[in-house]
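$ ./design --mode recover --in tokens.txt
reading tokens...
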């Protein structure tokens, strides 16, 4: 009986240690309603970006590509191509934003204050401070910030101390 109790205590200790170390290595998490796309000094809530509002909020795109993607369940995938990046909607729902040039930025509203805008060419110093777990665990020049409990994340591509790309990415695998 004593051996069983020791075994149970050892199991609980190992489990709690594993859970503690895992919580220290997780990515940082942010809520979807804290995400903003900054364009021309205007902060646009991600939740407000829909196919019916995107041109009103961001102007006319260079082109709109409509296609059926065979890797997902969407009937229609629309890609709004702008000079600053691309915005993709699947069945009128925002699924991907790619900021690949300066002009647009991702901004976060934390404790009712907007953070510094993160765009192509931004330095990573504030990113390190704002998302320390994600920074501590970044791999292959990618810093990932989880959005809630979804399969969606903000992905920062970096080179040295500079951000080279910022994306809203949904993992559909």
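writing sequence...
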């Amino acid at each position: 009986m004593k051996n069983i109790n020791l075994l149970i205590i050892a199991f609980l200790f190992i489990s709690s240690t594993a859970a503690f170390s895992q919580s220290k290595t997780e990515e940082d998490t942010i809520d979807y309603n804290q995400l903003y796309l900054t364009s021309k000094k205007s902060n646009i809530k991600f939740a407000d970006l829909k196919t019916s509002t995107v041109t009103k909020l961001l102007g006319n795109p260079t082109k709109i590509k409509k296609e059926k993607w065979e890797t997902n369940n969407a009937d229609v995938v629309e890609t709004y191509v702008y000079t600053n990046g691309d915005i993709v909607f699947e069945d009128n729902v925002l699924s991907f934003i790619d900021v690949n040039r300066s002009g647009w930025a991702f901004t976060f509203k934390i404790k009712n204050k907007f953070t510094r805008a993160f765009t192509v060419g931004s330095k990573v110093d504030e990113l390190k401070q704002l998302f320390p777990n994600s920074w501590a665990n970044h791999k292959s020049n990618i810093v990932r910030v989880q959005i809630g409990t979804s399969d969606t994340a903000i992905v920062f591509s970096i080179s040295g101390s500079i951000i080279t790309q910022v994306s809203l990415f949904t993992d559909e695998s």
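exit 0
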